[in-house]
Amino acid sequence: MSRARADEEEYWHSSKFRAFTFDDEDDELSQLKESKRAVNSLRDIVDDDDDDLERVSWSGEPVGSISWSIKETASSSTSSLESRDSSLQKGSSSYAAFPKQVSSYSLSSLFKGRNRLPSFQSLSDALSDTGVKNYAPELRRPKAEYKDYSSDWSPKDTVRRMQRGKICSLERFRSLQDKLVLLDEAVAGHDGNVITAVLIFLKRTLRREILFRELEVRQVALCHLIHFLKETGEQKLLLDLLRFLDRTEEVALSQYREHLNIQDVEKRREFLKGCIGLPFSAEDTSHIQDHYTLLERQIIIEANDRHLEMAGQSEIFRKYPRKASILNMPLVTTLFYSCFYHYTEAEGTFSSPTNLKKTFKIPDKQYVLTALAARAKLRAWDDVDALFTTKNWLGYTKKKAPIGFHRVVEILQRNNAPVQVLQEYVRLVEDVETRLNLATKYKCHDVVIETYRDLKDRIQLTAYKCKVERGSAEEEKINSVLNNTQIRWKN
Amino acid sequence: MAFAGRRDVPEPPDFGILKRLARDQLIYLLEQLPGKKDLFIEADLMSPLDRIANVSILKQHEVDKLYKVDSRPALSTSDQFCFLVRPRIKTMRYIADIVNADKMSGRSRKYKIIFSPQKFYACEMVLEEEGVFGDVTCDEWSFYLLPLDEDIISMELPEFFRDYFLEGDHRWINSIARALQLLNSLYGPFGKAYGIGRCAKMSYELWRDLEEESEGDGQGRRPEIGNIFLMDRDTDYVTALCSQVVYEGLVDDTFRIKCGSVDFGPDVTSSDKSIKVLLNAQDKVFSQIRNEHFSSVFGFLSQKSRNLQAQYDRRRGMDIKQMKNFVSQELKGLKQEHRLLSLHIGACESIMKKKTKQDFQEMIKAEHSLLEGFDIRESTSFIEEHIDRQVSPIESLRLMCLLSITENGLVPKDYRSLKTQYLQSYGPEHLLTFHNLKRIGLLTEQSAGETLTAVESRVSKLVTDRAAGKITDAFNSLARRSNFRAISKKLGLIPRVDGEYDLKMPRDMAYVFSGAYIPLSCKIIEQVLERRGWLGLEEVVRLLNGNEFSVSGNAGLNGNEFSVSGNARLGAGGQGAVGPTALCPIQTAAWRTIQPGSPSALSSLSSWGAAPSLRSLRSGSWGRREGASSSS
């Protein structure tokens, strides 16, 4: 024990900076595990009480936090919070004596109040030593506000007052000239809230063609109106405006966006069909077309497969019941699904992978990755094999992949492929270093041995001997390689 | 604690005042509706609210039940409803529906809406349209600033980024100006204000405007904040798009830090429950490793756990009296440390597991190549494979954006092919995402007419200076070219590495990205503060599309720097993208940057981008280290 610790100590003192890689899983993790063990071993002395642990509910929120309480109200609306907080003294607040004045607007001009209220104890206490003025909300409505409706504020003053959250009547800005001056002042004041307020007024009091025309040369204001229309959902007016501005692509996108609100798949499909004719760019038109075709396919596949699953005749559906419907899933997910459930189907059926590949012009790389993941998940190693096997004209077979074989190995490994399968692909990894790494990591001993043999690296091979089991076939193989006098070792 | 190493750096101001102010005002507003009431809270206000108040405070002020604002109709018997909400039109309609339903069924209740941080005219318009104006009373809760740590304040405005940068809506500028006003009155007057970016400039102007009419009674006080720095998010997207490799960054990457706290699941706590942990300077373990490169963290934790073990071991030879002392004086602290240690070790373990499972190493390599401008083809095919394998949609977008910004747009052929594959992998509706990203300038296609764009950018620069800014935005999308290569060359943002970059004793801020990139935003602040202005940085300013300013105030004796930045967490998607604005104090040399807060994701897609990366840029340790090394 003490020996091990001394060693470790030495390690920490002696090791200088090493390049850090996240691939150094073993080293770093074991180090972490070590620390964890050390800390955990202390747990029994420490965990006798949990006094400084936060009380946390099942959902992870600290008990008493607001988020937690809301979840509680949601889950059991009958139980009042009172029982839980019964220890609290009610009404003991120092604010109880606070004068209750009606003030609906003036709070916005907060942080100006000079009136030091005796009841604002904690606040003034907190602030008095820092010498800061008192920040009580302004309690009385300023007298000036009563004048609003009668007096003639200039456009500039109107905007300034609105920026400060005060009410201003805009009704007296009746000539187009006045309205536009007001709008320009609002824009110059940089407050989007006021700009929008003026636009609401203009929208109400001007014919839309006039409004559009004036906004065309006022881009900042225009952005505000467009955003406002989007938020309030005035789609028709928005489209009219965009058409007026000749922003045809935005018109198309804005209409297409609506499909997100349509839940019913049949209706959604119909809607998408209508979108194909919208003035998209040529590139996007084909994406929209694909979107429509994909949903159409999914509806057919879904109907068929639900039927199959219900009937209970198909083995694959019995063995691997579907977790979710395929409707509205991305194309690659659909491809995965069809590689999983419909791999062997003829190209003629809508659900066959090859049909999908053709219809949507899925690139080889994409297709192979997806098919591999699906077949590996089913542990159909023959299919995996077939995926990469090509025959040349002489009838020789060869393994080829549009993706790196290290990627293939990774996917297979994630699906718990047996070593025999794995090693076949590890062997095909071109880069020697990567190959060695993968082979060592996944214990593909044969590959490691062969690679060292090919590298003529006797030292590494000898070192590897202690990583294989004593008396195993692998050890024997290493010995026979080491004893092979034909090999001219480099070391 | 974080400043102990530097004598010339003053203590940060007491930002706790901000919390007390917000709490007191909320209580005051609740008292405006006397008697028992049910409180409906907007989902994304819950975490900020948790930081300043708790259930018992609400209950003391006669809040009976708490509900989340959502689409379900409320079943409640209370006579009074109070809604604590963001000024959003959707929420107004939700409230109006409740009021109208009550009216229909002949129920009479009192309703109060409290807007945070402010009310919008458009909201009142909706209330008027829905026929409930007058049935509800409205108030504003001026909760502009939430201190998340000793040296980070956030506005927690998730929608700022999308509203301003994508939609071109200026509605939050007033909130920023008021936040500045609040800071100035509490901790100012600021000695000097610097800034860059159009939004920064507008915010500054509006703030000055607001300031003019309030009497300056802060005069004669000792200012606690020396300088402020305002910066637009779009000045520096790259920083936000790179993977950070310091501990705090990786924690955020893996678990998502929201509003300064994180949920550690059962795999971290090694028990069956989750724990919500506040991550700040109070956490003695965290504060020591938050800014360290991840590779140094293991060593630190292992050292720390051996020390702890030794401390416990001491109790072996103790007699009764010593034992008593030990239990009464040390045990509690040791236990606390033990708890923190095991949490952070657990977190490290989870991070390692997750990162080794993904191709994190490869991803970092691709990022670094993009930053340096080498092997673009290889990186592009890495991104392609990332997309094909349906690995995280956000990561794929992030890498594409990084490619676009560093290369000034994608080659049209690549753009088309990556876009097509993206739509195939993650869903065709992301057509809308691509459109948004293009508009905002994050993911663009290289155009043939390079020269044309240069002309337009010059035109737009001329126009910008016109007060009304009438035509500016028309050119904005074109002017928003990143010029990344030129800027990074000019400012030396890509460190030239001779041999190994020493991550344990880094020589510059690039260590947060394993030595690959010095964050542009931090570099600019450093340069401007050193020069006390923009003099000599004209070329950089031009490349960043201008709008720089620097204004001297009256007194500036204090060394605290404060930086305000239109910050981002950006999402795309047809449904939503978000981004908050953030404020942060920057110690003279210790680059404390921004805590943009916890933007809630409106769509599954939207939680990527700037926020996480910037968070780890709070490389306070850099400043400390610099101080330490220069004194030794």
UniProtKB/TrEMBL annotation, chain A:
Organism: Falco tinnunculus (Common kestrel)
PANTHER family attached to this UniProt entry: DEFECTIVE SPERMATOGENESIS PROTEIN 39, SPERMATOGENESIS-DEFECTIVE PROTEIN 39 HOMOLOG
Lineage, broadest ranks: Eukaryota, Metazoa, Chordata, Craniata, Vertebrata
InterPro entries registered for this protein in UniProt: Spe-39, Vps16_C_sf
GO CC, alphabetical: early endosome; late endosome
Localization per record: Cytoplasmic vesicle; Early endosome; Late endosome
Protein name as it appears in the record: Spermatogenesis-defective protein 39 homolog
Keywords of this entry: Cytoplasmic vesicle, Endosome
GO biological process: intracellular protein transport; vacuolar transport
Gene3D superfamilies, per database record: Vps16, C-terminal region
TrEMBL record, chain B:
Transport listed as a keyword: yes
Keyword flag Protein transport: yes
Swiss-Prot/TrEMBL keywords: Endosome, Lysosome, Membrane, Protein transport, Transport
Composition bias, Low complexity: 604-622
UniProt cross-references to InterPro entries, sorted A to Z: Sec-1-like_dom1, Sec-1-like_dom3a, Sec1-like, Sec1-like_dom2, Sec1-like_sf, VPS33_dom3b
GO-annotated biological processes: protein transport; vesicle-mediated transport
Pfam families reported in the protein's UniProt record: Sec1 (PF00995)
Membrane topology: Peripheral membrane protein
Bias-annotated ranges (Basic and acidic residues): 623-632
Record's GO cellular component terms: late endosome membrane; lysosomal membrane
Region annotation Disordered: where it falls in the sequence: 604-632
Record's subcellular location: Late endosome membrane; Lysosome membrane
Family: Belongs to the STXBP/unc-18/SEC1 family.
Record-given protein name: Vacuolar protein sorting-associated protein 33B
Organism: Falco tinnunculus
